[in-house]
Amino acid sequence: MAKKPHEHHDRPHRHHYDAEMLSVEEARERILSYFQRLPVEAVPVVESLGQVLAEDVVATFDIPPLANSAMDGYAVLSSDTKGATEASPVELPVTGVVPAGQLPDHALEPGTAIRIMTGAPVPENADAVVPFEDTDELERRASGGLAELIKIHLETEPYDNVRGAGEDVESGETVLRAGQVLRAGEIGVIASLGHQSVNVVRRPVVAIVSTGDELLQPGQPHESGKIYNSNAYSIAAMVSHYGGVPKIMGIARDTIESLEGALEEAMDADLVVTSAGVSKGDYDVVKDVLSSKGEIALWSVRMRPAKPLAFGVLERPDGTKVPHLGLPGNPVSAMVAFEQFGRSAIRLMMGKPNVAKPSVEAVMDDPIRNHDGRRVYARVHVYRDESGGYRAKSTGNQSSGVLSSMAQANGLAICPDDIGMIDVGEIAKVELLDWPDDIF
Ligand code: AMP
Ligand code: MG
């Protein structure tokens, strides 16, 4: 039997964590205290996917507007079809046709039928529609021409294949409420009420500044000793994924002037993200610049990867302030830190509740080792075994610089900070990278 994470507490390899460091939750709470919901804006409905509705949506008419046919067939008075079968059909004269989008030009006379298309309004006096399939329509069509007489093969009941007016939405009804996240269904409903635009909480613009003398921008020729700036792109993708608008700024070199210039351009965003320069080596330049432009806190977060984290507030020339998240430079550290902190900040600005990443409990195919009392986020591939249970397999090298194992991962398996190891066959909580975040 696999063991649950909490059963590890009696194990010999239990760890004492470093209380000087912040837990992920403490760091997140501090960071979120600097953010607020952004103002409301009107956007074209088609662009509102994933945004939070800022107003109740009330119907001003019925949908559908009139009783209409659910099938292509014949509108009839159901009592006229009494006893109809294929062997002894009821034959009715056809007096006209109602195409979709047009109103019937006459009422149904008892003892007759009117040809009707799906979605077309049902003529007065008709109370049911007999689908073509239950008539001799198809045989007649094969022998050419429209029927003047139609044979009904099935007895119908009142309201058969008739959709009532207001069956979907009634005039005056509140169809959607402020605070709802707009998905495809909600967007369709808004369009069905005839609206072209909708009031939603604005998307945050996130400026991404990369720092480092070693960086090349993708598209530049490859140079020995240099690496491409991947962080700006992975972070931009995460910003888009969580509903924000990424703005990739240039690369700041490891000098005060260069970083100052880049930050100045980035400051009109709702959040400035920098990558690198928060570990010991080259921190000084970044710290000097950031403290001269605002306030900065440097934290060690009890997590692996992504221990070093900077967070602060930059002051714009006009005196307003913009939060700054300083991510570590290592590509996986930057991504894991953004998942834990950037995602929550974007959700808060967009007016969404602070919910945890969706997670599953999975049996580990590989161990997760924790040698220094930090919460470990291990890159894994989650899959279902033959019995339908979740299992998680390491995607390989777990070094914080190895981005390919992040690309192969669909989840981050967690070893808590006070546990030395989750062994093969034991259960770990796995935060899923690719599941929707709003099903909770
Ligand atoms: P640093 O925090 O500046 O010491 O950087 C830590 C590691 O991350 C170094 O190996 C850097 O080369 C790497 N790194 C920094 N910025 C980026 C970036 N934008 N894209 C990819 N790797 C980076
Ligand atoms: Mg650097």
Total number of distinct structural domains: 4
Radius of gyration: 31 Å
DSSP summary, beta strand count: 27
How many helix segments?
8
State the end-to-end distance: 28 Å
Q: What is the top-level CATH class of the largest domain?
A: Alpha Beta
Enter the CATH topology name of the largest domain.
Molybdenum Cofactor Biosythetic Enzyme, Chain A
Helix content: 10-25%
Residue fraction in strands: 25-35%
Oligomer: single chain
Task: Describe the strand arrangement of the main beta sheet, using strand numbers.
Answer: 15-12-16-20-19-17
Gross CATH architecture of the largest domain: 3-Layer(aba) Sandwich
> Which hetero ligands occur in this complex?
adenosine monophosphate, magnesium ion
Structural class: alpha/beta
From the spread of the alpha carbons, the general shape counts as elongated
Task: Report the biggest beta sheet as strand number plus sense, adding barrel if it closes.
Answer: 6 strands, mixed
From the structure above, extract its key features:
8 helices, Molybdopterin biosynthesis moeA protein, domain 3, 6-stranded mixed beta sheet, binds adenosine monophosphate, 5-stranded mixed beta sheet, Molybdenum Cofactor Biosythetic Enzyme, Chain A, Molybdopterin biosynthesis moea protein, domain 2, single chain, 4 domains, 440 residues, alpha/beta, binds magnesium ion
Walk me through this protein's architecture:
The chain has 440 residues and is of the alpha/beta class. The chain folds into four domains: 34-38 and 203-349, Molybdenum Cofactor Biosythetic Enzyme, Chain A; 49-63 and 169-201, Molybdopterin biosynthesis moea protein, domain 2 (Alpha-Beta Complex), CATH 3.90.105; 68-163, Molybdopterin biosynthesis moea protein, domain 3 (Molybdopterin biosynthesis moeA protein, domain 3, Beta Complex), CATH 2.170.190.11; 359-438, MoeA, C-terminal, domain IV (Beta-clip). The protein is 18% helix and 29% strand. The protein contains eight helices and 27 strands. It has helices spanning 24-32, 137-142, 184-192, 231-241, 256-266, 283-293, 331-349, 404-407; strands at 40-44, 57-58, 68-69, 73-76, 90-98, 113-116, 128-131, 149-152, 162-163, 174-176, 197-201, 205-211, 215-216, 227-228, 245-252, 271-275, 294-300, 303-304, 308-315, 321-327, 359-364, 368-369, 375-384, 390-394, 411-415, 421-422, 427-432. The strands form eight sheets. Strands 15-12-16-20-19-17 form a six-stranded mixed beta sheet, sandwiched between helices. Strands 7-4-6-5-8 form a five-stranded mixed beta sheet, with no helix packed on it. The protein has a five-stranded mixed beta barrel with strand order 21-24-23-25-27. Helix 4 (231-241) runs parallel beside helix 7 (331-349). The longest helix has 19 residues, at 331-349. The two termini are 28 Å apart. Bound molecules: adenosine monophosphate and magnesium ion. Magnesium ion (MG) is lined by residues 212, 276-277, 282, 329. The site of magnesium ion (MG) has 5 residues, from loops.
